[in-house]
Amino acid sequence: MPMAAAASTVKNGVNVEALIAAREALTATPVAAQFKWRAACEWKNGTHSHSTVEGFYGLGAEQHRKRTFKFDADHPEVFASEDKGATPVEYVLVGLASCLTAGVAAIAQHRNIQLRVVTATIEGDMDLQGILGIDSDVRNGFGGIKVSYKIDADAKREDLEALVAQSQKRSAVYDIVTNPTNVVVEVL
Amino acid sequence: MVIGAGHAGLAMSRCLTERSIDHVILERGEVANTWRTERWDSLRLLTPNWQGRLPGFADTGNDPDGYRTVPEVIRFIEDYAKAISAPVETNTAVTSVGSGGTGYLVRTDRGDWKCRAVVLASGACNSPRVPALASAVPSSVTCVAAQQYRNPGQLADGDVLVVGASASGTQIASEIQRSGRQVFLSVGEHIRAPRVYRGKDIQWWMDAAGVLDERYDGVDDVARARRVPSLQLAGTSDRSTLDLNALTDIGVTLVGRLAGIANGKAQFAGSLRNMCALSDLKMGRLLETIDAWAHATGVDTAVEPPHRPPPTRVENSPPLSLDLAVGGIKTIIWATGYRPDYAWLDVPVLDRKGMVRHDGGVVDLPGLYVMGLHFMRRRKSSLIDGAGDDARDLSNHLSSYLDGRILKTGQSSESDSSSGYQSEVA
Ligand SMILES: Cc1cc2nc3c(=O)[nH]c(=O)nc-3n(C[C@H](O)[C@H](O)[C@H](O)COP(=O)(O)OP(=O)(O)OC[C@H]3O[C@@H](n4cnc5c(N)ncnc54)[C@H](O)[C@@H]3O)c2cc1C
After folding, report:
1. Tens digits of per-residue pLDDT, A88-119?
2. Nearest Cα residue to atom 12 of ligand 1
3. Number of domains observed in the structure of chain A
4. If you count residue pairs, one on A and one on B, with CB atoms under 8 Å apart, how many are there?
5. Which DSSP string corresponds to A76-110?
């Protein structure tokens, strides 16, 4: 896998220099690397909830965005819900696909690979006997997840496979989905 | 025909004898075979001696509040078999049960039997229920099911991962930790209970307050009730409580439910805190039920005041993985539950999980009954003390069936379990 040593001529819209600078800065001051990501969720009605994402903590300070992102979550009508948004599990799929895709772009930039089109489809298998409590041997979550990439780029197939592999290796959401996380849920 | 000479088969035998119903008990080994072959050395019953009331037999020994050792259980069940003159054919393994003529054809390694009715009392705990992910355990780690576990001396030196924190898992974890090995205990859903509450054994309270008598047709979700794991209890001479706090105190490391094994690493769910919180809440509800009963009946004044054990302590960030390939773990003990083995049952009464379809022990096929399953008719169905009431009910049903007093439909299609059979005592 040849690494591009020459100055980048590739335009994937990723500012690799800035990312590398950030990495160097954060290596020097690990406290600044401590981030907290947040979302707030408010129940609306039935299975419908409304979530917002705005501030986060990082670089040693509270950070604010120019706008608040809004997300509605609900369940489809086959579950006797009003279908006012994607289901929470679909948000997980969105999270995984967008994290891997961002990684593909950043790593391609770093490796001097010009991307033209990158599309991913993602599918999670779920046996509802788990969440419905029908069969205790069936887990609540996905039995498995499959992500399929179509990539049109100036690179050999092996390089694209290496790109997608490296993206999984560096992906936060991939790690969250494939490895356990301690979760604390409290009632205030 | 009764298959199995554990306490359940014997209790049924006694009830059949009372009704003058001719029968035989077929037993592949000796009376109390399971207690002779499938229990660890140090095991004591978690039910006190008084809680072994069997039809026509009550032997509490010298100490009604003590807990029997395995040899004492074997003697107790043997004494019962003698006391009721149980017609046991020992060393006779049933190899198949099929429909035949107007009843059943039971084949054994020592000849065939024809009979009109069969009671399956072959036990609910014949095989370990080991999760599929066990196949990913690296070969450097030895796996032992609770059923094969005997004592710490049998294990290789090194750390031990015990998977499952119900009665078997907590008892085994405690013993191995005390033998000088580091134990990691993987904790999923579990039921916490104090050994002694307000000065009385928790089993006394559950018995007196009617908790153990709750019927299968009286609970909201019987399928769920039947899956509830055993209480974290041990029978010890000091009547100490065996909960996760007690295990933490002796140095056991608690980890979450074993969720997967990837690249030789065991991965534990991040839900340990919630598993413990659920269990603390559930215990709180049990103790509230007990307090309410004590108050309503006036028992209140004769016992110690109510108290609540402290919450289960969980460290802030319990380990989420353990490297099985290179770490110190040399043994995994699967204390993940037990299941019955019906490989020899050639009648279509099993569901897709291999469990007998039954309504309170009355199986889907006329003349076929089962005993000893978890919450089969009552919460106590799988306990020694629970066999009596179930055997009385089911022998009554069986007797009506033999007398032709049970309404049957679709009886001609013997092997068709979906024939719409309705059981009803006339
Ligand atoms: C570790 C452990 C601890 C327990 N502690 C307690 C306790 O403290 N208090 C309590 O009340 N309960 C306890 N129980 C629950 C219950 O009392 C026991 O499981 C008990 O052994 C069940 O009795 P049983 O008669 O239903 O089945 P078993 O005792 O298993 O008897 C079934 C008999 O059927 C025979 N058999 C099986 N298949 C065949 C065949 N094909 N042909 C011929 N014979 C066959 C077996 O050899 C066996 O003798 C415990 C269970 C376990 C696993």
Report:
1. 999 999 999 999 999 999 999 999 999 999 99
2. B383
3. 2
4. 31
5. -GGGTS---SB-HHHHHHHHHHHHHHHHHHHHHHH
Provide the whole-model pTM.
0.88
Answer whether B330's CB lies under 8 Å from B156's CB: yes
Residue with CA closest to ligand 1 atom 31: B6
**What letter does residue B161 receive in the DSSP assignment?**
E
Let me know: does B391 contact B426? Beta carbons within 8 Å: no
Nearest residue to B322 (alpha-carbon basis) of B203, B158, B200, B169 = B158
pLDDT by residue for chain B (426 residues), tens digit each? 999 999 999 999 999 999 999 999 999 999 999 999 999 999 999 999 999 999 999 887 889 999 999 999 999 999 999 999 999 999 999 999 999 878 999 999 999 999 999 999 999 999 999 999 999 999 999 999 999 999 999 999 999 999 999 999 999 999 999 999 999 999 999 999 999 999 999 999 999 999 999 999 999 999 889 999 999 999 999 999 999 999 999 999 999 999 999 889 999 999 899 899 999 999 999 999 999 999 999 999 999 999 999 999 999 889 999 999 888 999 999 999 999 999 999 999 999 889 999 999 999 899 999 999 999 999 999 999 999 999 999 999 999 999 987 654 333 333 333 332 322 222
Count of CB atoms situated within 10 Å of the CB of A171: 21
Residue ranges making up the domain that contains A132: 1-32+87-179
In terms of domains, do A132 and A116 share one? yes
Residues A76 and A117 in one domain: no
Taking CA–CA distances from A132, the nearest residue in chain B reads B224
Same domain, A73 and A132: no
Q: In what order do the strands lie in the sheet with B321-323?
A: B258-262, B265-268, B321-323
ipTM for the predicted complex comes to: 0.73
CATH 3.50.50.60 placement within chain B: 2-126+340-418, 130-334
What residues pair up with B267 in beta bridges, in sequence order? B260, B321
Q: Could you tell me the distance, in angstroms and rounded to a whole number, from the CA of residue B196 to the centre of ligand 1?
A: 26
Distance, in angstroms, between A136 CA and closest chain B CA? Answer: 8
Asked whether the beta carbons of residue B259 and residue A133 sit closer than 8 angstroms, the reply is: no
Residue A96 sits in a domain of what CATH number? 3.30.300.20
CA B226, B232, B235: angle at the middle one, nearest 5?
A: 115
Domain B2-126+340-418 in CATH: superfamily?
FAD/NAD(P)-binding domain (3.50.50.60)
> At the topology level of CATH, where does B130-334 sit?
FAD/NAD(P)-binding domain (3.50.50)
Dist. CA B15–CA B395, nearest whole Å: 6
| A180/B274 touch (CB, cutoff 8 Å), yes or no | no
Based on the fold, state whether residues A74 and A155 are members of the same structural domain. Answer: no
Do residues A22 and A96 both lie within one domain?
yes
**Ligand 1 atom at minimal distance to the Cα of residue B384:** 11
Q: Is residue A128 part of a domain?
A: yes
**Pair B123, B372: CB distance under 8 Å:** yes
